[in-house]
Structures are given as structure tokens and as C-alpha cells.
Design goal:
This is IrrE N-terminal-like domain-containing protein. By secondary structure, the chain is α+β, with helices and mostly antiparallel strands. It has helices at about 5-15, 25-35, 70-85, 90-95, 105-120, and strands spanning about 40-45, 50-55, 55-65.
């Protein structure tokens, strides 16, 4: 997905969630995820964040040991959900489970990173494309 399409998605998300009209906070992100029916769990785990889908239910897991980074990691996983689950006709299994966390070569990581930066920074981070 190109940057223009990601910015358009972010602007659509702003219309749906008033919290995205300013910088994203942990409480605001929790409200957004609850509204979308995505569970958010914070617990010890070997990686910073993870998006899981089980029988149509979605969960974002965030590592408990990084409290100052919870919002960032959860926003990144939420970005994967918006870009690679909702925005993809073939489904999450192909598009997200095949990602290699330890390899930075997967373009989907860059897409999620860009959308997460828009979510976290608020409208002032929208680039002029």
C-alpha cells in the first residue's frame, strides 16, 4: 500500500474515532480498540507486541516489561489490523501470519510503522505527499 492510501485510511479513521484528532494516548487507544471489538492484553511475552486472531476475535498483546512503550506497540499492531486484516480481501492468515518479526525487509512492517506514526503523532504528522 502506498503512502497516499495510508494517509487516506488514517483520515477515514479520524472521522470514525474522535480521539485521533489529536496525539494518541494509552486511554484513547484503549477506547478505540474497545469500540472496534479488539481486546488488548498486557502481559510478559518474548516480543514487544503481537496481533492474534482466533475464530473471528482479535487480540493485541503487549509486553508488560515495556510500560513506556505500550501505546507505541499497541498502535503498531492496531495499524497491522487496519491495513492487513480489514484492508485485505484474502484474510489475515496469509497477510499477517507470514510476517517475519526479525526481518526488516517485509514492506508490511513499514506500512504499519507509517500508520502507527500518524496515529501517535496526530494530524500534525500528516505529510504533504
Amino acid at each position: 500500500m502506498n503512502d497516499d492510501a495510508i494517509v487516506r485510511l488514517y483520515q477515514q479513521m479520524q472521522r470514525q474515532h474522535h480521539e485521533l484528532r489529536r496525539e494518541l494516548t494509552w486511554p484513547a487507544l484503549r477506547r478505540i480498540l474497545a469500540r472496534e471489538g479488539i481486546a488488548l492484553l498486557v502481559r510478559p511475552m518474548p516480543r514487544p507486541g503481537k496481533l492474534l486472531g482466533i475464530d473471528g476475535e482479535w487480540v493485541i498483546l503487549v509486553d508488560k516489561r515495556s510500560p513506556r512503550r505500550h501505546t507505541y506497540y499497541a498502535a503498531h499492531e492496531y495499524a497491522h489490523y487496519k491495513l492487513h486484516v480489514e484492508g485485505c480481501a484474502t484474510g489475515r492468515y496469509e497477510h499477517v501470519y507470514n510476517m517475519d518479526y526479525f526481518e526488516g525487509h517485509d514492506p508490511r512492517e513499514g506500512e504499519a510503522e507509517f500508520l502507527a506514526s500518524l496515529l501517535l503523532g496526530g494530524p500534525r504528522f500528516i505529510p504533504r505527499l
